[in-house]
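User: Can you help me understand a structure? I only have the sequence.
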Amino acid sequence: MESSADFYGGFFILIGILLYLWRHKRVFDRTNSAGIEQFSSYSGKLVARFGDSVLWLFGVLGVTFGVILMAHTHESTWGWMVLLPFYWWLFIGVFLGKSK
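Assistant: Let's start by predicting it. Here is the structure, written out as tokens:
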């Protein structure tokens, strides 16, 4: 069980990193020598930015899910060092930190 969780956790981390890097490559390919992004039209800009946002979201979720999966598997050894700040942020930062 432990090795399969490590495999899937590493797989999700790898996929998340690849998606994140693919997003940066797309932005780099659209950038000219002056450092300004070039688009063919306004709708092209909207579609490209939306695609970049989706790649960023899936990349961050993949890395987060992989780290949490591996940390829960190894909670008795080193996982608590990863889970403690995560749960602190989740319960204190998200639930109690919201201002209405």
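Now, to help you interpret it: The CA atoms of residues 87 and 93 lie 9 Å apart. The first helix runs from residue 2 to 30. Let me know which part you'd like to focus on.
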